[in-house]
Design a protein that fits this description.
The complex is a heterodimer of chains A (333) and B (377).
Chain A lengths: L32 H13 L1 E8 L6 H9 L5 H4 L14 E9 L2 E9 L14 H19 L14 E6 L8 H10 L5 E5 L7 H17 L14 H11 L4 E2 L6 E4 L2 E8 L2 E4 L8 H11 L1 H31 L8
Parallel strand pairs in A: 1-3, 1-4, 4-5, 5-6
Antiparallel strand pairs in A: 2-3, 7-8, 8-9
Chain B lengths: L1 H14 L19 H12 L1 E8 L6 H9 L12 H5 L6 E9 L2 E9 L14 H19 L13 E6 L8 H10 L5 E5 L7 H17 L16 H13 L2 E2 L6 E4 L2 E8 L2 E4 L8 H11 L1 H31 L16 H33 L1
Parallel strand pairs in B: 1-3, 1-4, 4-5, 5-6
Antiparallel strand pairs in B: 2-3, 7-8, 8-9
The chains are: A alpha/beta (333), B alpha/beta (377).
């Protein structure tokens, strides 16, 4: 923190300092230094991010997570599984890692949901997931109303749910619609087209358009939600993003030599797909959205909107419960 | 404003999606190091707020110091009361709010003034209106925080209280001690030696030593500067050390500009010389300003939120729960959730209080018995 050299005040115009907020003497009070103080504190504390991945097995969820964070963060990397067996019911598995970049520390939690959509009868397969998300909200709420609460409540709330759409090329399946319809009300959903290397560019555009139409027709609000845009600047940027979702992604954690450079990609007989090349797939856009530009916004919407909705609902539940209890308890207003 | 640049770059890319961009540098870079910038950008948009309370007898230079600190003139139309009018005056709480903007950062500054403090003949409990005010702000925040609509909570909690100690005496007076003790667990108290231009450097040193020693002796918990991290640079550590050694800070304020050594500075003109407010060898004003605004403003707010407010809240809830066991009826300003399993913490507290009540009851019975026996004899 550098202190400015002893103030050499600029020339004054009158004997008595001109009254007026902050501009009195044309000198420097120094209130912008608070940004540096905040930043320093944030760096010390570190950040938390909880991402959930949902989709049928084999859509590349774990690989995509590894590609996003350029390290082995997914469930599969942590547990050695010789065979992938489809579990009978939906499992919710959380894996946490502490990662660091340029002095910024982050506790990243990847929540995997193996078994989703894999059964013969997939009715209500979103229920365990809803339950999990609400359980995290409940945990946070209990900590918040505690008498002696922690200085920094550990945040296990799901900030973002990436939903993997299989690249059929036609339209959304009923399962996709059902899931997204229900969950977009409690968590930020980011839909992606998985394994997009099976679609040509025209097929991809057509598919995306169909998906967008169906989302609109079913009233599904995915991230970035239109109603949460704060100002004109946000709206402009978010509108451009809304025109592009869902992102068509390809994941890979293997490097290949392309044109003298080592790149992440998938090598086939007809060419090598470069993951970070935007002419090949939209992975880079997804990464930029999730990590480089909108991460804070995603967390903010989770805590100030989704969580608040949950909280209000819980508190109202209590009030109606008390009203029916009668007896000794008498709640004032 | 890197985050804004990033946003713009994203927009650019979105506008021409098929253009191939060179990405050599970004090979191993995930990119979440921009997180502090994202937070930064959001805070700049929202702006900050800060509430500062000034307390001390009339004529200690409080208003002048506030004007000097924030380069404003908040007290333009103030009317000073004469002594007759002051006889019947009680301690008031007056708020002044001003919006300051500097380099794109907006600050909503609220100054809470306490005219009338310590001015009466009998100053018993003259700090009560002040502690009541602070508690009221805590209560307001508590209600807001526990309410249903938490979107736009106004934070009116007092973040820092500057207490002005007169330089004329030999250390702390009883009213100084009592005031600081009444407030040290509710707000960050920063004691200052006012009107330091009436003391020579030796006298200042002696007074500071004396005040420091008395603060320790009476167990007054003034605001402590947080320890420096080991990875801070040497200059910062040095400044921090100097700051700690200089407490309490001896300050001088001024509403006038004088010309000295070819420059125009804030100062006071005496026949025997000119006192410059921003001259570090004349007084500790610069240290105070740097501490309050440039280096510790965020920490002051944090300590208020994490320590003072939490203590208030814990106390409030405990009081409410003990009232609950006593008369089974409760006017609850905060919604309490139905807990499926009884809260271990609350149960334990209730049990503790019950045991305490039982013990006290036993003691009372014993005492009554003794008195009874004494009467018989």
């Amino acid at each position: 923190m550098m202190m400015p050299p002893p103030a050499m005040p600029a020339a004054f115009q009158v004997e008595k300092p001109v009254p007026g907020p902050g501009m009195g003497d044309f000198s420097y009070v120094g209130i912008d230094a608070i940004l540096e103080q905040m930043r320093r504190k944030a760096m010390k504390q570190g950040f938390e991010l909880n991402i959930m991945v949902v989709g049928q097995s084999g859509l590349g969820k774990s690989t995509l997570m590894n590609t996003l964070f350029k390290s082995k963060v997914s469930r599969k990397s942590v547990q050695a599984t010789s065979q992938e067996k489809i579990p009978k019911t939906i499992d919710i598995k959380s894996v946490s890692h502490d990662i660091e970049e340029k002095g910024v520390r982050m506790k990243l939690t990847v929540i995997d949901t193996p078994g989703f959509g894999d059964q013969i009868n997939n009715e209500n397969c979103w229920q365990p997931i809803m339950k999990f998300i609400n359980a995290q909200y409940e945990q946070y709420l209990q900590e918040e109303i505690n008498i002696n609460r922690k200085k920094r409540i550990p945040d296990s709330r799901v900030h973002c749910c990436i939903y993997f759409i299989p690249p059929t090329g036609h339209c959304l399946r009923p399962l996709d619609v059902e899931f997204m319809r229900r969950l977009s009300k409690v968590v930020n959903i980011v839909p992606v087209i998985a394994k997009a290397d099976t679609l040509t560019l025209e097929e991809r555009d057509f598919f995306k358009q169909k998906i967008r139409e169906e989302l609109r027709a079913n009233g599904i609000d995915v991230y970035p939600q239109k109603e949460f845009d704060e100002d004109a600047e946000d709206r402009m940027i978010n509108d451009k993003i809304r025109e592009m979702i869902p992102f068509a992604v390809v994941g890979s954690d293997q490097e290949y030599q392309v044109n003298g450079r080592r790149l992440l990609g998938r090598k086939t007989k007809w060419g090598t797909i470069e993951v970070e090349n935007i002419a090949h797939c939209e992975f880079a856009y997804l990464r930029d959205l999730l990590i480089r530009t909108h991460m804070e916004n995603i967390k903010d919407i989770t805590s100030s909107i989704h969580y608040e909705v949950y909280r209000v609902r819980r508190l109202n539940e209590n009030n109606t419960a008390i009203a029916h209890e009668g007896e000794d308890t008498h709640w004032g207003d | 404003m890197d985050a804004i640049m990033l946003q713009e770059k994203l927009v650019e890319r979105l506008l021409c999606p098929r253009v191939r961009t060179a990405r050599r540098k970004e090979k191993q870079y995930v990119g979440f190091a921009t997180l502090p910038n994202q937070v930064h950008r959001k805070s700049v948009k929202k702006g900050f707020d800060f509430t500062l309370m000034v307390a001390g007898e009339s004529g200690m230079g409080k208003s002048t110091l506030v004007n000097s600190l924030f380069l404003t003139d908040l007290y333009k139309d103030r009317k000073l009361l004469n002594s007759e009018e002051r006889i019947n005056q009680t301690v008031e709480i007056i708020k002044h709010t001003v919006d300051i903007e500097e380099k794109g950062v907006k600050l909503k500054l609220t100054i809470v003034d306490t005219p009338g403090f310590g001015d009466a003949v009998n100053n018993n409990e003259c700090w009560k209106p002040i502690t009541d005010y602070i508690d009221q702000q805590f209560e307001q925040y508590f209600r807001d925080e526990s309410g249903l609509n938490r979107k736009n909570i106004q934070d009116n909690r007092v973040h820092c209280c500057l207490y002005f100690i007169p330089p004329f005496g030999h250390g702390l007076r009883p009213v100084d001690v009592e005031f600081m003790k009444a407030l040290h667990e509710k707000v960050n108290v920063v004691p200052l030696i006012a009107k330091a231009d009436c003391l020579t450097p030796n006298e200042i040193k002696k007074l500071k030593d004396r005040v420091r020693e008395e603060i320790e002796r009476f167990g007054i918990k003034v605001y402590q500067f947080p320890e420096c991290d080991s990875d801070e640079d040497e200059e910062f550590k040095q400044l921090d050390k100097e700051l700690k050694e200089c407490c309490p800070l001896a300050v001088i304020g001024s509403n006038t500009v004088v010309e000295t050594r070819g420059q125009r500075v804030r100062g006071r003109l005496y026949p025997w010389g000119i006192v410059e407010v921003e001259n570090q060898s004349h007084c500790d004003f610069v240290k105070l300003r740097n501490m309050l605004i440039r280096s510790h403003m965020h920490d002051l707010k944090d300590v208020t939120c994490d320590v003072h407010y939490e203590n208030y809240r814990a106390q409030c809830i405990q009081d409410m729960t003990s009232k609950l066991t006593q008369d089974n009826r409760m006017e609850s300003p905060i919604p309490i959730l139905p807990l499926s399993t009884p809260d271990v913490e609350t149960d334990r507290l209730i049990k503790m209080k019950d045991e305490e009540l039982a013990r006290m009851q036993e003691m009372l019975n014993k005492m009554q018995q003794q008195i009874h026996d004494g009467k018989d004899q």
